[in-house]
Amino acid sequence: MAKLYFHYSTMNAGKSTLLLQAAHNYRERGMEVYLMTARHDDRAGNGRIGSRIGIGSEAVTYAPGEDLFAHLAARLEQGPLACIFIDEAQFLEPGQVWQLARVVDDLRVPVMCYGLRVDFQGLLFPGSATLLALADEMREVRTICHCGKKATMVVRQNEKGEVMTTGAQVQIGGNETYVSLCRKHWRATTGEA
Q1: Per the residue annotation, which of 58, 66, 88, 137 is the catalytic one?
Q2: Domain assignment present for 193
């Protein structure tokens, strides 16, 4: 039975690594998979999903406003897919999450989404909020704060290493920009009550 999955965490938890490992497992068993990632996140290269441990795979990109149901329905006309994998799912628009739910419900193909739950201000990304509402199954990918507790939040730093508390919700970056923290240390670092 096809389901919509949401695997979420903070930065540097290994979400892309898990996605690539799951896709590899399908392929190893002779099953066709389809990988997608956000067009504006090109840290691993344009149309590529990459992990910090050095593994990667080519992927089709998606952009805001794109009809993912139509895109995936057209792809399925070329042949069956065992699973669809979406990286950087926090960048999906709410309507696109609904389109992915239709892929699961109407086209009966599992969709596994991997992404951040909250931004550097502690707010849900719109795509993540919709995935939390619609996903059939959710799995937290755990990482740790410098204190050893589970990290659930992330701070953004400028080029001097100073913590930023304002700015655009989306700024592409990795270890040089973001640090994952537990809620207590996020509060202490950002000055939140």
Answers
A1: 88
A2: no
* Whether 17 contacts 55, CB under 8 Å: yes
Work out how many domains the chain is built from and give that number. Answer: 1
- State the residue range of the domain holding 85: 4-141
88 is catalytic: yes
The enclosing domain of 30 has a CATH number of: 3.40.50.300
The two three-digit tokens of residue 59, written as one number:
């992927």
Considering the domain boundaries, does residue 162 fall inside one? no
Range from 133-147, 154-168, 175-189 that averages highest in pLDDT: 133-147
Residues with Cβ within 8 Å of 153's Cβ and at least 6 positions away in sequence, in order, are 10, 118, 122, 180, 181, 182, 183, 186
89 domain residue, yes or no: yes
What separation in angstroms does the CA of 75 have from each of 43, 80, 97, 100, 187? 26, 9, 18, 14, 45
| CA nearest neighbour of 9 among 143, 148, 134 | 143
Residue 120 within any structural domain of the chain: yes
Distance of CA 149 to the CA centre of its chain: 22
pLDDT tens digits along 171-180: 554 455 678 8
21: which 2 tokens? 């490992």
Strand-strand pairing, 48-50 and 56-58: antiparallel
